[in-house]
Specification:
Blueprint: H1 4-7, E1 8-12, E2 17-21, H2 31-56, E3 63-66, E4 73-75, E5 81-84, H3 92-105, H4 113-122, H5 126-134
Parallel strand pairs: 3-5
Antiparallel strand pairs: 1-2, 4-5
Helix pairs in contact: 2-3, 3-4
Bound molecules: zinc ion.
C-alpha cells in the first residue's frame, strides 16, 4: 500500500525499529475512505492470519475490523479476533507483529513468558516491533 508511507516512515537498524509518524497526515478519514480502507484491512488481516497460522495451526472464531482509537488488535476469550482498520497504514513488519500477537492469544490468554516465546517463534525481533508500535502517538494509551 502506498498510503502507509505517507503516514509512517520505518527506521531500521540492527538495534532499533522506529516509526516516524507524520502528525499532519492524521486526518479524520472521510466515511468513504474508511469504508474502502476497512475492506483493504479485512483482506490483509485474513491473508496474514492464514499465512502465519500455517505455522501455529490455531482456530479462531469471528474476525472483526473496527474503527477503534485505543488498540490495534484484541482477542476475546471466545476466540474472536478484532483488528483496527488503521493496521493498513502500518509498515508490514508491524502488521505482522499485531497479527501474530493476537494469534498467540488463541493459545495463551495472557502475556506470560510462554506467550512471548510463542510470538518469538515466528517473530524473533518482536520486542523492537512492539516498541515501535507503542511509539505511535495516536494509539498510545
Ligand atoms: Zn496481548
Amino acid at each position: 500500500m502506498k498510503i502507509f508511507y505517507d503516514f509512517f516512515t520505518l527506521l531500521k537498524d540492527r538495534h532499533k525499529l522506529r516509526v516516524r509518524w507524520r502528525r499532519n497526515n492524521i486526518k479524520r478519514s472521510s466515511k468513504r475512505t474508511y469504508i474502502k480502507d476497512k475492506e483493504i484491512a479485512r483482506a490483509r488481516v485474513h491473508q496474514k492470519l492464514e499465512h502465519f497460522n500455517q505455522y501455529y495451526g490455531f482456530t479462531w472464531g469471528r474476525v472483526a475490523i473496527r474503527n477503534q482509537r485505543s488498540r490495534w488488535g484484541s482477542c476475546s476469550k471466545k476466540g474472536n479476533l478484532n483488528f483496527n482498520y488503521r493496521i493498513v497504514y502500518l509498515p508490514e513488519e508491524l502488521q505482522d507483529y499485531i497479527i501474530v500477537h493476537e494469534l498467540c492469544h488463541l493459545r495463551m490468554f495472557n502475556h506470560s513468558k510462554a506467550f512471548w516465546a510463542l510470538v518469538g517463534e515466528v517473530i524473533p525481533d518482536y520486542k523492537i516491533r512492539r516498541k515501535a508500535l507503542k511509539s505511535i502517538p495516536s494509539l498510545r494509551r
